[in-house]
Backbone:
């Protein structure tokens, strides 16, 4: 493992690593399957604010796409993590730590996306290494920039490689480490409760994250969980849907950027309570699991404009 006393690990080749460009091609079926995977239409099947993500409504030519669908564009990078020079880690102990998304234009209902990925950060946390990857995505045909995803991966057991007494920490540009606003002490502006289904992770994985942590009981046990856990990005999808529904009056195009830190795992079948506070055009949110009364995700969403409903 990088760290664990492995003083040979040199972080420099990792931070200068160049990932090959990758393509992600999707159809409306993929966008609809994703929407179902993050709970769209599961609560109120006839909710016309969400039907548009899975069905051509009112003779519309195309379905609409949730902004968090863009997180799938980066999935191809996961297979390249183990090729990072010198960075050794146990993939069974990998957890998704954070996600930051910027949306530059509404996501098309189908298309071919060109992704350019790079290392945005590397942090030695002693008991873990936090690796940040940034993926900028372009519509292949027009070359237009569509969105940016920056994710932090928490590699348990892979830290402790710093050679000096100061823990190694590298961040390119604005890293999303430590940029999270405090959860206000005041009552939330709105609270939205929604159950995940026992098969939620099995449905969500069909969108492309086949990590057995979310489907294989033995793998989950080795990773330290009593049973398979929900994908972090599935929980984030639920939270952003709640914000679109409660604050944006169902208009997904109001979302400009999304930030989230995964605080604790979620088990499929648990109930998610999303608490939201509005501060100008920023929505601060926190997701709690009702059954365990624990916060599992927190962050903020910046809107293109204030909702006229506020
Ligand atoms: C390229 C495509 C790749 C795709 C990747 C995604 C693959 C997916 O299939 C995997 C998943 O979806 S996993 C499920 C979602 N994630 C989770 O459930 C993790 C939930 N969080 C935790 O368990 C803990 O916060 C935990 C364990 C993360 C941290 O808890 P602790 O060990 O108690 O940490 P703590 O002592 O509080 O802090 C240590 C230092 O680490 C920083 N940190 C803490 N939580 C972090 C987090 N979530 N993300 C990033 N950094 C984090 C702290 O700031 C601290 O650093 P410092 O000492 O410098 O302050």
Residues:
């Amino acid at each position: 493992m990088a760290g664990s006393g492995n003083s040979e690990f040199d972080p420099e080749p990792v931070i200068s690593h160049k990932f090959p460009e990758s393509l992600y091609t999707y159809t409306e079926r993929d966008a609809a399957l994703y929407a179902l995977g993050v709970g769209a239409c599961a609560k109120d099947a006839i909710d016309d604010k969400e039907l548009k993500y899975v069905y051509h409504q009112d003779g519309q030519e195309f379905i609409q796409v949730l902004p968090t669908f863009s997180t799938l564009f980066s999935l191809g990078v996961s297979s390249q993590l183990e090729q990072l020079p010198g960075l050794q880690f146990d993939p069974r102990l990998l957890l998704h730590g954070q996600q930051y998304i910027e949306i530059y234009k509404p996501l098309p209902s189908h298309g071919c996306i060109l992704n350019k990925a790079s290392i945005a950060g590397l942090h030695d946390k002693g008991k873990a290494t936090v690796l940040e990857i940034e993926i900028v995505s372009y519509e292949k045909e027009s070359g237009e920039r569509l969105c940016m995803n920056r994710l932090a991966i928490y590699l348990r057991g892979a830290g402790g490689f710093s050679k000096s007494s100061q823990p190694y920490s590298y961040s390119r540009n604005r890293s999303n480490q430590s940029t999270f606003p405090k959860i206000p002490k005041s009552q939330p502006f709105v609270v939205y409760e929604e159950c995940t289904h026992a098969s939620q992770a099995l449905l969500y994985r069909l969108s492309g994250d086949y990590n057995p942590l979310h489907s294989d009981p033995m793998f989950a046990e080795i990773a330290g969980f009593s049973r398979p856990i929900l994908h972090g990005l599935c929980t984030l999808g639920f939270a952003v849907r709640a914000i679109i529904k409660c604050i944006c009056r169902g208009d997904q195009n109001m979302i400009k950027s999304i930030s989230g830190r995964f605080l604790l795992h979620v088990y499929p079948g648990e109930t998610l309570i999303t608490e939201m506070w509005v501060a100008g055009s920023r929505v601060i949110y926190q997701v709690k699991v009702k059954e365990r009364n624990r916060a599992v995700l927190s962050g903020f969403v910046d809107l293109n404009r204030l909702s006229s409903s506020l």
About this structure: Residues 74-75, 77-78, 95-98, 125, 130, 133, 152-154, 209, 211, 213, 229, 231-232, 261-265 surround 3R-hydroxydecanoyl-coenzyme A (CB under 6 Å). The helical segments are 12-15, 28-37, 48-51, 200-204, 217-222, 232-246.
